[in-house]
Amino acid sequence: MIRLTFTLIFLLLEAGLIKSTAQPIAPRPTSANQSAIITGANQTEKYLPYLKGKRIGLVANQTSIIGDKSSVDSLLSLGIKIVKVFGPEHGFRGKASNGAVVANEVDAKTGIPIISLYGRNEKPTKAQLENIDLMVFDIQDVGCRYYTNINTLQYVMEACAENNKELLILDRPNPNGNIVDGPVMTEDKYKSAIGIHYIPMAHGMTIGEFAAYLNGEGYLKKPCKIKIIPVAGYNHGMNYELTVHPSPNLNTQQAVLLFPSLCMFEGTAINEGRGTYMPFTILGAPALKGKYSFSYKPVSIPGMSERPNHRDTTCYGIDLRKYDISELRKAGKINLSWVIELYKAYPDKAHFFGAERGNTGVSPFDLRIGTDSLRKQIIAGVPESEIRKSWEPGLQQFKSIRKKYLLYPESGGK
Question: Could you give all domains of the chain from N- to C-terminal order, each with its CATH number?
Answer without folding.
Answer: 34-229 (3.40.50.12170), 253-381 (3.90.1150)
